[in-house]
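Quick one: structure for this chain?
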Amino acid sequence: MMAVVLLCFLLVAPVVLVASRPAQDSANKTVPLVMWHGMGDSCCNPLSMGAIKKMIQEDIPGIYVLSLMIGKNVAEDTEHGFFMDVNDQVSMVCSQLARDPQLKGGYNAMGFSQGAQFLRAVAQRCPSPPMKTLISVGGQHQGVYGLPRCPGEASHICDMIRKALNTGAYSDLVQKHLVQAQYWHDPLNDDLYKKHSLFLADINQERGVNETYKKNLQMLDKFIMVKFLKDTVVDPVDSEWFGFLKTGQAKETETLQESILYKEDRLGLAAMDKAGKLLFLATDGDHLQFTREWFNANLLPYLH
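Got it. Here's what it folds into:
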């Protein structure tokens, strides 16, 4: 079962074109950048995270970029993206960031796919060193309720796994060991989700308002969310802008601004929105697919 889940959750690596010229060097001291990769990827894949790190270092000379490795090597890092308790991963990262002398003055953070919601948890739980700007590239901030397309597999395989997650995603065993179950958000079983989701329900204030989470998130200068308009991996894609399916059914969606989370301002997002701290960007591509030109025009300015 796990092997099939692993296959079906593999993400397409980001495509980064290298046609444009690097941005001009700034005389100001650069802000360090921490990156967290997506599912099925690793810190140092030369076709994805490695290429993005290299691109940023070319465009912002002298910048310190830490691409997080969860584990002792690339193989462990990739495996942990599927089978390690997310809360343990976040704790590990918080400790690593606190020990890094390069980050003492603060840092910007960029998360790709599931790495985005994991970095948001870092912002909410670990305010020191301070995160300045959080950039979510295709992150699923209200979780997922659906499987991505399965490369080379018939759709009935995905349907089978989805049914298995529907019935077993909130069991203790699956919650503890399958990363994707920890941000599985079932609108048809809202009580189960709120009670048993080990990660997402906690960071989204579903069981009560943790004022520390709310205070810490509002310390961000900017929270930027990127949605991929032709995304075939994230379901529903609205989650990339903190929207989701309306509770009790699985067809109609609602925006962040229409949600109880926002209307009751349980996480401080409404206050951040009013203060101009939330930015919603979109790009006309599939999951994590963007050009260097788009990146330089839309995201690079927030990394200086």
